[in-house]
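User: Hey, my collaborator sent me this sequence without any context and asked if I could get a structure. I don't really work with proteins. Can you help?
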Amino acid sequence: MHGGQLALFAATLSPDIGATVDFYGIHPNVNPDFSQLSSPVLGIFGEKDSFVPPEAVMALETTIQEAGGSIDAYTYPNADHAFFNDTRPEVYDATAAADAWQRTLQFLQANLKG
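Assistant: No problem. I've predicted the 3D structure and written it out in structure-token form, which is a compact way to encode the shape of the chain:
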């Protein structure tokens, strides 16, 4: 399990999590119980991600919403898996990464108290 999926999984296990950000993390063999989701979710994905294609993102949105959860998923056009990772020049997308960072900060500020 990787970071984004781990964040989603953790948010189903603890009511103390106030906001969850998932950067391109969906694992086909890990199915958290989204009826136990404790926080709103921001999902950040890349359109060209072969590990997490747009169809998987749509399925995740549907699954979370049908379980009563809240997700705001954003898919960056022409971005690949790990587009936020500036140590991976073959996939890094500075424009998408900067926008994703701003979305993340705004989401956390809106959803975390204290």
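In plain terms: The chain has a mean pLDDT of 93. You can pass these tokens on to your collaborator as they are.
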